[in-house]
Amino acid sequence: MTTEANHPVRTTEKSLHLIEKLRELDGARIHVLEDELEMTKGAIHNHLSTLRTHGYVIKEGNEYRLSLKVLTLGGYVRSNYSIYQFGRPKANKLAADTGMLVNLATEEHGQSVYLYQARGEYAVNLDTQVGHRLRLHNIAIGKAILAYLPDERVEAIVDEWGLPTETENTITDRETLFEELESVREQGFATDLEERTEGLCCIAAPIQPGDDILGAISISAPTSRLGDRAFDDDLVGQVKSTANEIALDIKYM
Amino acid sequence: MTTEANHPVRTTEKSLHLIEKLRELDGARIHVLEDELEMTKGAIHNHLSTLRTHGYVIKEGNEYRLSLKVLTLGGYVRSNYSIYQFGRPKANKLAADTGMLVNLATEEHGQSVYLYQARGEYAVNLDTQVGHRLRLHNIAIGKAILAYLPDERVEAIVDEWGLPTETENTITDRETLFEELESVREQGFATDLEERTEGLCCIAAPIQPGDDILGAISISAPTSRLGDRAFDDDLVGQVKSTANEIALDIKYM
DNA sequence: CATAACCGTTTTCAATTCGAAAACAGCGAT
DNA sequence: ATCGCTGTTTTCGAATTGAAAACGGTTATG
């Protein structure tokens, strides 16, 4: 899967590098960018002015930074995902019913991308936010997605992103991963037992209205809370049926 | 306030036009873009391939569309706003306490940009979403912001965006607007009584940790519900004190 | 089933445009 | 008042873009 343009537009690439760098540095002055990128200050100035004219960049004093235009754009893109449109109200309900943190995510470029979060009364505060991208192998949402992708796709994703260790519970070899995915398919849901974050567990179910997997929904909670309540409240059942409802809404929309 | 680059990078502008168009059309094929933009298909192909290499565009069959990379970027930009960082937990609490829809917004380019929404138990479903941009003159959040901007800034914003009618309650002349803003300053909060949307009312308070106004927080509810509960629950007081808490958190962070 | 129409991709090369370098201007510090 | 630092502007040679045409793959049509 090579995505090299065979006739790349170099000028556009320079602008994109500039955008990346502004993000990385949370804004910067021109002479700083001059050191970071291989461009002269005259060129940087031209690019930044152009991006500014079009509303992508804001200048405060001599500091340039990305504007909220990207947030606006991102909102538009997100609103086209049926899993977001139909999943949002269901995620709200699941959060209200369980009191937990509910996540809605899809797959892009072999990563999970968080589309929405709903917070119940006792929702944990996590490092994950809308737009964040995580690897798929060590989170419940990720494994719920991987389980319903073709094997060769999973192989390619593991090739690209690896199986890096995050906690002592992280799955780090392919064989174990494929066994796990098989058991996800048998059970219809995936779990994350402190595989990415110490003390945090998740339960996820796939959202699959047709042949293709569109994403997954999960609940996250501290290990103690999930352990206590998982069976009493049939949390697994709630997550699975929410995922099913979303899938049905999408299928017959 | 002219933001014309005096040496614009035309190639970058072409890519940006392409991005805008993809957003507008929610994705498109090359020959459609050829009709919409003044570019040949060869050029469009080069630009799209370049944007794709860098992850901004996705190709599905022969259809090109914007990827979630912009959502990711937008998330990073948003997380740099202190009003978001500190306002998010407070907005969650206000939503839980009042059961309503809570909005957090800032100003950019003379518009309001929604940074966050928190949903209480009885929150209305609205057309506003994170990232959306609205005019300032006919929403509570907007007037709460305008009231604490310098007069000449307000004038400039009205010059740029006008005071278009949305409902019969919309303020449409400058004099009334400035009177309203004066009363917002006296009272320390702003209201929207069906000025943008029939049947919807809002209460907003400014977030101003220092000399500059950073944004505002509001609650939205159907006219009937707000009317019933506004006085009983001292909703105005709750919104104002939440705004104050956020401002203090930011000031002494 | 053959053929045509259509459309995305590639190639070539002339015209455009970009940006390196240098000069300028504005601000802050000394 | 002067110097130094940086952002902006200008100029013009060099790099790159993209118009046009050819190609090739896919879908529609007779």
From TrEMBL, chains A, B:
MF-aspect GO terms: DNA binding; DNA-binding transcription factor activity
A GO BP entry: negative regulation of DNA-templated transcription
Domain IclR-ED per the UniProt entry, residue ranges: 69-252
PROSITE patterns: ICLR_ED
Superkingdom per UniProt: Archaea
Keyword Nucleotide-binding included in the entry's annotation: no
SUPFAM superfamilies, A to Z: GAF domain-like (SSF55781), Winged helix' DNA-binding domain (SSF46785)
Gene3D superfamilies in the record: 3.30.450.40, Winged helix-like DNA-binding domain superfamily/Winged helix DNA-binding domain
Keywords: DNA-binding, Transcription, Transcription regulation
Statement: the UniProt record of this protein carries the keyword Lipid metabolism: no
Classification via PANTHER family: HELIX-TURN-HELIX TRANSCRIPTIONAL REGULATOR, ICLR FAMILY, HTH-TYPE TRANSCRIPTIONAL REGULATOR RV1719
Name used for this protein in its record: IclR family transcriptional regulator
Provenance organism: Natrarchaeobius chitinivorans
